[in-house]
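RECORD CONTENTS
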Amino acid sequence: MFNRNDRRKLRFAEVDLVIRTISVVGALVGAAVLSAPSAAADEAAYLAKLQDRYAFLTPQQLLAVGERVCAAERAGVLSPGKTTMVINDLGVGNNTALEIVSAAEWELC
């Protein structure tokens, strides 16, 4: 069927295929890791988006509600639920709450 030399060639081809497959998978994983966006929370950017417009809210209030928005996000709460939470927590209008939720989702979560 196969002589000894043919079996060696077949074995070499199999090993070569495995090495190439591992190399391609490694390259793809490396590219995915390097191109992934960073998930670092940026409190300064969050406050910069909101503080001038909503000066009646303290930075502590904005950060506290932003962290609550992130906790709700991790729990799977949808934007309408998070917006209602901010309205109830801060006593602000719908548009203000929407902007706070949006800023928190982009900058903190």
About this structure: The chain has five helices and no strands.
